[in-house]
Amino acid sequence: MARDGATNRRIVVVPYLWLISFFVIPFLLILKISLSDQARARPPYIPQLDVTKGVEGFWTFLTALDFENYVTLLTDGYYFRSYLLSLETAAIATALTLLIAYPMAYGLTRARQKWRNLLLALVVLPFWISFLIRVYAWMAILKPNGFLDMVGQGLGFSAGAFALLNTKSAVIIGIVYSYLPFMILPLFTVLDKLDDSLLEASRDLGASTLRTFISITLPLSLPGIYAGCLLAFIPMIGEFVIPDLLGSNDTALIGKTLWTEFFNNQDWPLAASIAVGMLLLLLLPIVALQKAQAKADVRQASQVSVGGRRFSSLNFAAVVFGLGFIYLPIFLVMIFSFNNSRLVTVWAGFSLKWYGVLFQNTQLLLSAWLSFKLAFVSATAATIIGVMAAMTLVRIKSFRGKKLFGFLVLAPIIIPEMVIGLAFLLLFVAIDLPRGFLTLFLAHTTFGLCFVAATVQARLSGFDSTLEEASSDLGASRLQTFWRITFPLILPGVLSGWALAFVLSFDDLIISSLVTGPGATTLPMRLYSQMRLGVTPEVNAASTLMVLAAVIVLFVTLWFGPKRGAEQI
Predict the structure, then answer these.
(1) What is the distance between the terminal CA atoms of the chain, rounded to a whole angstrom?
(2) pLDDT score of 410
(3) Domains along the sequence of the chain with CATH
(4) pTM of the full predicted structure?
């Protein structure tokens, strides 16, 4: 028993200390800097704590802090409008995402069992395809004389009538598209567990299909609706890349405002106060999400549905529409990567020349190699620590600070990347750590381990613990039981977690942009700089190769766990 207790403490301490060091402390730095004043110095804020002066230096430092930046946020209408616009955009996008996701998720629960895993894998696949590529795909669709505008002209509309790029509508479309899977998965999990006998009883009593839906299906699916809406709404608030690529220059969403204050205006204290304000704004939704997740049980693998479910034509139409919305932009990017013309929306014959141009771009290739190395090492470290975190949450029933630990594991997944990246940057500046590969590794490992923990936790939660108990009864230590019993059985979840952490690291743009330094430009950063100059066939070629790589990684993962792959990811 004593040995098991010591093992438990060792399992807890590593992920706990890691998250305290690279998540809690950075956010305390944000709070401290938000109470500071802008200065022409390095770092560009005052006061600085002088530990050599002892108590007097600490008191001088403490009395110099003030709430001036928060007064600015409350009194300057620009920042209020920025917060309000972000809330409005996120609310509209969440509502539209729910309208698309609900019928699609319901249709998936009606599909035959043999098709369901494939359909779920197709829903999950966008998680594995570069977020930047998915946003970029809409640039070619929404630009003047783009795909949508050309379709409109073919239907008799004037040129430019459907050119939505650089508008608020384009931003909302991009946000809905990017966060649709966040809504579908929790909805599917809840809807698939509905007791069909209740629906049959309602129909037998003469209720119409609509009445049955309103009285039975909708109320029972509310936990999934809450979880899905919160999972989408929270990160939407701090979105930066989508408004920057699809919106106009005056689209002052709060994520873009934070970026402008930090990098353009060099006002670190005001940027920090904006980040704190964003966190306070999201505090209630994050707490609500924790409760909704517990109620909806979104971390559990969905049960196998009972027989007799009918896959109607409406279900089929909802699934086809949803998958078409997800994959049409990606397919267009891939098709036009083989276009002979430099105009990405005008087909001029099949050609591989843009792939040749791509492989002659040494800067792009070096960035790709850097991203691969970074993703490999950070995913491996994240998997080791993430498995410890999952074991802590599932196997250790109680310990001091378990609720805080659970929050720390969840928070990096849903807090906007802009805020997390700023927290990392301030930490590395405070400890005077040169930015480069090491800072990228520390940041990517921190947010990657949380995704690994969530993936492995889902596998552990449905695990038959009697096998572990039998091993202990036969005299095996907890460590022996883990390596001989637990680890082989959770291996598919561990591999899925590693692959997910790898793809997230390889794909990351915002956090990487904030914590990197000279000579450490990742592939997404390189592509992003090119995309801001316009849509080019060379970027189409790079995007196609990244999509194919993501598909290969996903299906290799599913090969190791064919029966559970789609649910675990």
Answers:
(1) 35
(2) 81
(3) 1-28+352-569 (1.10.3720.10), 66-335 (1.10.3720.10)
(4) 0.83
